[in-house]
Amino acid sequence: MIIKQYYLSCLAHASYLIADERSKIAAVVDPQRDIQQYLDDAAAAGYTIRYVFLTHFHADFLAGHIELRNQAGAQICLGNRAGAEFEHLALKDGDNIMLGDVRIQIMETPGHTPEGISLLVFDQTRSTTEPHAVLTGDTLFIGDVGRPDLLASIGVTADELAAMLYNSVNRLRQLPDATLVYPAHGAGSLCGKALSKDTVSTIGEQKKFNYALQPMPFEQFRTLVTAEQPEAPGYFVYDAIRNRQERPDLDQTMHKSLQALPLQQVLRLQQAKAQLLDVRDAIDFAGASLKGTLQIGLQGKYATWCGSLLNHDDPIVVIGDDNEQEAVVRLGRIGFDNVVGYLQDGMQSLQQHPELIQTVPRITAAALAELLQQEPPFVLDVRSEKEYAIVHLQGSSNVPLTHLRERLQEIPADRPVVVHCEGGYRSAIACSILLQAGRTNVSDLVGGIKAWIATKLPTIPENTLTCGTKVCEIAG
Predict the structure, then answer these.
(1) Of 3.60.15.10, 3.30.70.260, 3.40.50.300, 3.30.70.360, which CATH number belongs to 2-239?
(2) How do residues 50-90 score in pLDDT, each as one tens digit?
(3) Residue 434 contacts by C-beta under 8 Å, 6 or more apart in sequence?
């Protein structure tokens, strides 16, 4: 038996290839939308991908079940409560799928979503009664459980889902301690709040160290798993719905999206409400960018912020530096198929058009400290409220990036504004939003609050935290 894990760091997403070496029959579980790696590995080993499983309708990405059906002829397998509009095999608790000597048994484990399932994987050459592994989807993570409060589960309340999750966790706890646990997400996913960086564990380890697997009454469990969950991006509901639906596969959308568009066509699209997305690094964007663009760099939490700040209705034009294909693929992974092309020749196309170029001044922590002793600028902290509460600059104002557009009136237009976040990724995005809104006197703090603390400048609380501690570990 072969179980291979594929980990996509930018989405903190784990998918799996399960195969039987004797029969060469394989299944893919919770695939990402760009499926070539599964096809290549199966071809190299001589496997036939006969099945593709979704443990649930994922909210943070579009899964590759349609693509594997279209390109590999795989049968789509879902939980009995899924009710998808495409043809699929609906599996109930206790059902089995055979891959030669490998048996996959369905365990219904709702709670994160109503249709959630886990897959018990048996190597029947070793044992027909004790599973070698359980693929838990988003029901059980390493160190956490799937959150029951996402609006992706339309028509089911958080309390109802928490009750389902409580029962599902109790069932998983009864598995043998040696059973390997393979979840669908790791640290950084917004599908939970305390996910480990580890990508595999055992039931025994989770019974010891996972707070949600400790014996407790339901009311205590519900309070624990719903408290302090991170804010979910707006695209989560959209993706959960799209994963239920028939749709074009990624190859089709990439064909129309990877079109090189001349500058004048991009400008016409911009006037017609197209969303211009600059995916270069923050420092390059600050040096020169096309007026009116939104900057979200590929090197950070690109998918999460694109999903939070772009919409699915208006066309998207990408501006990059030979990384346009990667940018479009990663948009496709989260269901943004409304990309119509990219700026031909990138920023070089603006060499003869200085009137179209904007810049963002960058200021060091030391220089900002001097300014604050003179005529202080408005210091805008775009981190989350939780991060701001841990440590912040005295006199700064907190408007989380996710709410900046709706709270622009809180940012003064008649004085300089210095924007910062943790390390500079989110502040660059925020600067581009302010520029889109017509603000011109905007600067970006180089290195964010990390640089401020490293320079040993005062904070509230007064320098109680330094780089390397919790403040510098929060996502940014």
Answers:
(1) 3.60.15.10
(2) 999 999 999 999 999 999 999 999 999 999 999 999 999 99
(3) 404, 408, 411, 417, 419, 442
